[in-house]
Amino acid sequence: MTVLPCLHLDGYPSYGGSMSAENFPEFRLGKVLATSFTGTLSERYGNAVERIPVPSRLVDWLAVSGLMVDSCTESQLDHARELRESIHAAATAAASQTPPPFSAVQVINAFSTGGLASAILTPEGGREWRLSFASVEDALSVVAADAISIVARERDGKIALCASPTCRAAFFDTSRSRSRRWCDMNTCGNRDKKARFRANKRKGSNPAG
């Protein structure tokens, strides 16, 4: 069995570079494992950016999320993307307060039960994950279980969708008012702010006359 570095489900470190030599899109790491995973495909309704385009990048993402695996095949990458899109579909339904698609439920449940992983308590009071075989299947079972916990409303917060029409990424809103609009203020939020600034500037330079 492999004992992994501490994975805190309430927050993740920033990570921009790849562990390999190639130049891939940066990861957008959020505070919740499941929605952070769905963020490996961004701008779904615009110019989509695939952030795990090759198996090694899935290994990288799992590693920075505290889930170290030995290797990943193309087939395992395909399966991971299937889980990712199923989580996104279930989260989108949850944000709209409708039941998740049955196909998404089947996929998420299959991945949740398809690996062997256990949560263990550290001496510092944190949580670590123990993957039985350090396999992609073990790691994805942790991601699927995390998705179940937020879709089933077991945690304090709510699933919401980014207000950007080209993004619509799912995120877990834990703000006091539960009124957060953007998946990331530094990306979608700033882009909207700049667009509104430009629109107001154009309006100011062409006064009605």
Layout: helices, strands, pairs:
Blueprint: E1 2-6, H1 33-38, E2 41-42, E3 49-50, H2 55-64, H3 74-95, H4 102-113, E4 117-121, E5 127-131, H5 136-151, E6 158-161, E7 170-173, H6 185-205
Antiparallel strand pairs: 1-5, 2-3, 4-5, 6-7
Helix pairs in contact: 3-4, 3-5, 4-5
Mind explaining what this structure looks like?
The protein contains six helices and seven strands; from the N terminus they run E-H-E-E-H-H-H-E-E-H-E-E-H. The chain has a single domain, classed as Orthogonal Bundle (Jann2411-like fold), CATH 1.10.3300. 42% of the residues lie in helices and 13% in strands. It has 209 residues and is of the alpha+beta class. The model is unreliable at 1-21 (pLDDT under 50). The chain has a three-stranded antiparallel beta sheet with strand order 1-5-4. The protein has a two-stranded antiparallel ribbon with strand order 2-3. Strands 6-7 form a two-stranded antiparallel sheet. The protein starts with a strand and ends with a helix. The longest helix is centred in the middle third of the chain and has 22 residues, at 74-95.
Strand runs, count: 7
Derived structural class: alpha+beta
Name of the CATH architecture: Orthogonal Bundle
Poorly predicted residue ranges: 1-21
Helix content: 40-55%
Query: Biggest sheet, in brief?
Result: 3 strands, antiparallel
Average pLDDT confidence is: 84
Q: Percent of residues in beta strands?
A: 5-15%
What distance lies between the first and last C-alpha atoms, to the nearest angstrom? 75 Å
Shape: globular
Question: Which fold name fills CATH's third level, the topology?
Answer: Jann2411-like fold
- What strand line-up does the widest sheet have? 1-5-4
CATH superfamily: Jann2411-like domain
What is the domain total for the residues? 1
Order of helices and strands: EHEEHHHEEHEEH
- Give the number of helices: 6
Radius of gyration: 19 Å
CATH class: Mainly Alpha
